[in-house]
Amino acid sequence: MTSLMIIAGPLLMGAVFGYLLQQGKVTSCNVIENQFRLRDFTVLKVMGTAIVVGGIGVLLLVDTGNTKYYVKDANMLAVALGAALFGIGMVVYGYCPGTALGAIASGSVHAAVGAFGMIVGAILYALSFDWVKAHILNVWALGKVRLPDITGVPDGAWFAALAIGAGAFFFWVESSEAKARRAQG
Amino acid sequence: MTDVMVKDSRKSKRIDWSPYLVGAGIGILSWVAFAAFGDPLGVTTAFSRIASLFAAPVIGSDAVAANSYWKSMPLKWDYGVWFLVGIPLGAFLSAIISGTWRLELVPEVWKQRFGPSVFKRFVAAFLGGIVIMYGARLAGGCTSGHGISGGLQLALSSWLFLAVMFATGLLASRIMFRKA
User: Fold this and answer.
1) Is the CB of B144 inside 8 Å of chain A's CB atoms?
2) Is B152 helix (H, G, I), strand (E, B) or coil?
3) For B145-177, what is each residue's pLDDT tens digit?
4) Burial class (CB in 10 A: 0-12, 13-18, 19+), A131
5) Does A17 touch chain B (CB under 8 A)?
6) Closest to B130 (Cβ–Cβ): which among A15, A124, A150?
7) Chain A neighbors of B127, CB-CB under 8 A
8) Which tens digit of pLDDT belongs to each residue from A57-102?
9) How many angstroms away from the CA of B115 is the closest CA of chain A?
10) Per-residue pLDDT tens over the stretch B105-132
11) What is the DSSP letter of A105?
12) B128 Cα to chain A: minimum distance (Å)
């Protein structure tokens, strides 16, 4: 029974995630490419809402002692270099690792080809890990810090600002999209 | 933005979920991941564990066993790996129910810019896959682990990831889709 739950629980969580990604159209290469071409804001709408809704809930869960934070190390050079490669890879591939898995399951053969590339990338990282660890991971390594820690601005203020900023941005996006639709008739 | 949206609408017309609803759903899924499983949503850590399976026939299982990275991240069938297996199952279900499952060799946006060559698209997808996963491992996470899970925790590392990832993505896209 327990082992069933250890498998069924995460399997169900992943399935809901994959279902949502597909319903949100972010498993489409076209949608992702057009986000970076600023022609379709679906990716930012999904991610922004997930961060605000998820963050406020997790903050309450932490405050009530129901979970803790799992913050990744701020190895600033490694994160910056890795994110730069990630951005380039995402535009060339047309997916991020999670949406790629969803795309494969909805029939995108080129996403499956890229998944083999991702396996090669993971192997290359493992092979170069000793060098990376010695020369890159330790540069500007600040540890598991959160924005409220380094700025002194409390969590609540961060989420208020994020929610208002995202709301204003989405309102602007929706009005320009509505205008473009009207112009097209 | 409109001409592409119209071309794309045939494929996606039967999915009418608002992106805000989907985003809120992922946010709520995060609550469950944190509170019930103590494991934020993420993809690439488990991906790395699984990659060791594919590395064994290439570099030998001894080399895999001796590798310091895989020592810190051995293959185990844990939460992350089963979560990863679940993603295609859920996406497949959604694609079947919504009628959006279709074979795609070359996506529309790519075809308009680089032509219908399947070979060209496959090579780019493969190379892009290498770059994105190397970057994800170097940064310590991807759009899920850093972007969503880290972003919602207000982690410094994750907001740096988000800023740099979008900036380079915009730049790369400008270069790739410039008018020839």
Assistant:
1) yes
2) helix
3) 999 999 999 999 999 999 999 999 999 999 999
4) exposed
5) yes
6) A124
7) 92, 117
8) 999 999 999 999 999 999 999 999 999 999 999 999 999 999 999 9
9) 14
10) 999 999 999 999 999 999 999 999 999 9
11) H
12) 4
Q: What is the mean pLDDT of chain A?
A: 95
Place of tokens 């473009």: A180
CA-nearest of A94, A117, A116, A118 to A43 is A94
Task: Answer whether B145's CB lies under 8 Å from A72's CB.
Answer: yes
Searching chain A, which residue's CA lies closest to the CA of residue B1? A39
Rounded distance between C-alpha atoms, residue B7 and residue A171, angstroms: 24
Q: What is the pLDDT of residue B47?
A: 93
Using the CB atoms, write b or e for B30-68: b if 16+ within 10 Å: bbebbbebebbbbbbbbbbbbbbeebbeeeeeeebeebe
Nearest chain B residue to A157 by CA distance is B154
Q: What three-state secondary structure class fits B65?
A: helix
Q: Is there a contact between A88 and B169 if contact means CB atoms under 8 Å apart?
A: yes
| Interval B37-76: pLDDT, tens | 999 999 999 999 999 999 999 899 999 999 999 999 899 8
B66 touches chain A (CB under 8 A): no
B172–A50 C-beta distance less than 8 A: no
CA distances (Å), origin B81, targets A125, A178, B8: 19, 41, 33
Q: Is A131 on the interface with B (CB under 8 A)?
A: no
ipTM over 0.90: yes
